[in-house]
Amino acid sequence: xxxxxxSIAAVCCVTGLSFAxxxxxxxxxTNPISKSRILSVDSAVxxxxxxxxxxxxxxxxxxxGSMPIWDNEGRPIAGVFYTYYERDDVADRTSRPxxxxxxxxxxxxxxxxxxxxxxxxxxxxxxxxxxxxxxxIGENKNSILDVADIVxxxxxxxxxxxxxxxxxxxxxxFGVNEDIKYLAxxxxxxxxxxxxxxxxxxxxxxxxxxxxxxxLALELQNSQWMYLNGVILVSPTDLxxxxxxxxxxxxxxxxxxxxxxxxxxxSADLQQKDLTAFLPEVETFTINELIPALSRGGFIxxxxxxxxxxxxxxxxxxSEKVIMQNNLDVSYDLFWKELLRDKxxxxxxxxxxxxGIDRQAGGESPDYNAELVAWLHAxxxxxxxxxxNELNYKTDLKYNMFGNVWPWxxxxxxxxxNLRLAIAQNPYLHLLIQSGxxxxxxxxxxxxxxxxxxxxxxxxxDRLKWEGYxxxxxxxxxxxxxxxxxESLRTFIRESVAKPGTPAKY
Length: 506
Prior knowledge:
GO terms for molecular function: serine-type carboxypeptidase activity. Residues 1-20 form the signal peptide. There is one protein chain. The chain has helices at residues 111-118, 176-193, 208-223, 245-251, 253-262, 268-271, 275-295, 302-316, 320-325, 332-338, 370-390, 415-425, 444-454, 479-496; strands spanning 8-15, 43-53, 56-70, 76-87, 98-102, 121-123, 137-139, 149-154, 162-163, 201-206, 230-234, 346-347, 355-356, 430-436, 464-469. By secondary structure, the protein is an alpha/beta fold. The protein has two domains: 36-241 and 376-496, Alpha/Beta hydrolase fold, catalytic domain (Rossmann fold, 3-Layer(aba) Sandwich); 245-368, no CATH class. The strands form three sheets. Strands 1, 2, 3, 4, 5, 8, 9, 10, 11, 14 and 15 form an eleven-stranded mixed β-sheet that branches. It has a two-stranded antiparallel sheet with strand order 6-7. Strands 12-13 form a two-stranded antiparallel ribbon.
């Protein structure tokens, strides 16, 4: 990788943020607490920068800070940390899109997309996404800051965000619907303070953040009276859309096939095909043959069972014997353990390009997630270096790459239906889904299935789009996919902003 230069220009101003020294020790206070480890819920540090995107210099202002969540009496009970990037050379911000971004977990901050995908700074990794040293960050020449301002927010207990009122239980924030409700209120406050009500608005969420984004689309419309132009789902969850039994068992097969193809585990005639030419064959088999076969359960005849198992073995690189032993339903865990078992490796869950080494070859699941360890290895030092040294946000708080948000209430998850209703209600609203073929946590074919089920009427499908990439859960970590996916975002944002004077009507 080429040597990179920091683009930070100068610290512009600091408002509302103080860094108190630890309290003096006394006989009654022998273990003092530093105030710099307590979140200042209403604070901001502002700095000036520039970045070169697609060959053009883009000057921008970065704001790192926190804004409060209030209770019904107007008392701050938590602070949500955010970073906000606003392009400077824009005369009229009323038509300038605003992208509101967050990641998933639940329990992770927005670090992944901020310094891995859409933000103006990019972490130091190799071309396929693996960690390298020295740790750090450089310019993101594919950032979408040229076409939209961006705010990244960290839900409570992630990043620097914290509960500050000891009497407020975690259940206020930690649940599908609780999460959506308080973040909608926070977004309203942010948009109001930053004077962005006139701007076209977009949500982008990754992983569990897609559940959040889908629910927020309707919550913002119905409770905050804020109408969006677009929702972008990166590596979406099931969005609460029902899939069980034979459908749930079958839908993972195309992902298995993609992973086996990547690792060269298939027959020569399949390996010589391009991945995107090979997968439609597997998808057709899954829908037209595997689901009907699994639907017959133990009453499928032996000849058909054997034929289905043979085809599954051909497509997945898993032996026909193992498939038969598991009644044509190989689990994700077993697949990750089995595919490269004879070579002494496991494959990653979130990105199956990554390989791990277990204590023993036996067993039915990997010892650890090889890809997640690699990502934490790369992202953790990079975000801590960036926030402190470039954005000048200095605190003794620990930046939570994974925060404690448990127990999480996942009941009454109707976010897929909420998104459908939001799109139906708002003729301006468009949807883009981006998936990585090697993602085993939120696999690409389940994402396609969600898209198909999102609009049973078929009347909204001209505003719904899916894209696939030859990488995993964070498909943007592969440099080739980063460029293509970011360009797709630019196109989506431009095309989803209505032309002046165009009425929102059917």
